[in-house]
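User: If only I could read backbone structure tokens as easily as an amino acid sequence. Those tokens are not coordinates but codes from a learned vocabulary of shapes. Could you go through the record with me and say what the backbone is doing? Here is the record:
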Amino acid sequence: MKKTVCLLVLLSMTLAGCASKLSPAEQQFVDKLGSQGFNASEVRNTLKKAEKRDDIIALMTKPAESKPWKTYRPIFMTDSRLQNGLAFWQEHQATLNRVAAEYGVAPEYIVSIIGIETNYGRFVGKHRVLDALYTLAFHYPPRSPYFTGELEQFFLLSREQQWDMTQPIGSYAGAMGYGQFMPTSYRKWAVDADGNQQIDLFQSPSDAIASVANYFVKHGWQTGGAVMTPVQMPAVYPESMNFPKRDLAPLEDLLAVGAQAELPLAPHWHAVLLSYEEEQGIAHYIGYNNFRVLTRYNRSPMYARVVHEFAQQLKDAMSADQS
């Protein structure tokens, strides 16, 4: 009997040791952070607090952006989101005007981004950022390098902000705050706009507003620049011209294959060709530099278009409200 008990205890200890052992990839991560001044034991203990979430992997494989435009648009372009956007704009109008003057980004695009991302802070996500980044870094091979980098940035950001890493809540991809900044974006482009010596994208709308504008500018936003316009394309044209297969290119390339638009097209402009599945069939658009900037916030052309169209809806509604 005594021998059996000892064997059971030994087996239990072995299993516990195996459960707590880091994978080679995790150990490599610990070693890398150790070279950046982190205590290896603390990094290991933090990783052990992270939970692999199968629901996060499921969400990553079926994003809303995989839907056709005619299905995607109604998710975001709603009356309630519009009313929330107008209320947010009115409440923070002084900050939006100041930021627009400083950065050259029209208020409607800032308000649109925050509305599309979190409905003005009403839904900033429900997953621990640590769990999301850990799951995608070590259990989602298709994008493991990217999310391993973001997990590293989260450690650095948490050290700078003096966060308990188990506390921040965000999206299933690890994005945070009003504008859903990834850790890299938080560290590189978030700014302190309210002057309290702290960058807080969770509780400070002012910081969020200025950070979105700064993000745009750092990625090449052109003040007053065009975003997108409808275009007629011939029935047959090279598929390789479509975004994202092809990024910004001379507009002459599109004109050469028969692109036609109601608005004048300046040949020296650079643009991308966009195709959307609308109710009446496939519709084509030309996206300019500022469209490209929107895709730096989210690579999807569906996302960039809905941000643009919601911005125009907000601007029109705000003008009507003030008239």
User: Anything to note?
Assistant: Confidence is low (pLDDT under 50) at residues 5-19. The beta strands are 127-128, 169-170, 228-231, 249-250, 270-278, 281-287.
